[in-house]
Design brief:
- With about 210 residues, the chain is mainly alpha-helical.
- It folds into three domains: about 80 residues, Winged helix-like DNA-binding domain superfamily/Winged helix DNA-binding domain (Arc Repressor Mutant, subunit A); about 80 residues; about 30 residues.
- It is built from eight helices and three strands; from the N terminus they run αβααββααααα.
- Strands 1-3-2 form a three-stranded antiparallel sheet.
- Strand 2 and strand 3 form a beta hairpin.
- The two termini are about 40 Å apart.
Length: about 210
Amino acid sequence: MVAFDLPETTYAVLGLLDKRPASGYDLAAFADRSLGYFWPISRTLVYRELARLESLGWVGSEPVPQDRLPDKRVWSTTEDGRGALASWLAQPAVAGGADRNGFLVKFFFGARMSQEAMRTLLDDYRESLEATRADLAALIEHLARIPDARMGRLSARHGLLTAEARLGWIDEVTAELAAPSHPRTSDTDPDGAFAADRHAVSVRTRQRFGHR
């Protein structure tokens, strides 16, 4: 039985195990260096999802002896698990909402920040994005040499282009903030938040009812 109302993370863990059997520790490391750039999964959550998948009968485990260490449990998908994964993959994908971005939360309230604090905020975000871009570029180069890694390489490419777009946005923001200030939209709505809210609701409403 397939439960499509399960979290995407459940299927992400199932999909990683379908690629290759792994212990919980190794699976968490695999998740971090593969899905971690766009779907982070903590080690605690990996073990929680393994317990859920085992209760569903979608994965099983067997002990594997280790020299001078306790036996480890190596997990793998069952036939039912592979069927559930195939059924889930056949369903329409949902991109989801906006990322939870701590930088943007602070930036939204930037009118209350000093110029120095805003400059530091932008510089730190730029540094983080440049590191991500460098990591992804190296990953793409590595995956290009692995014939079976095309989907992983293309997924990393998505992350790389996203990082580059955000770096371009920082350049725009830096230039605009260096220009003379624009008048506020109103005394009661200094950040234009209400206007942005109304626009967002209007867009969502048109999309929901099929209007462009």
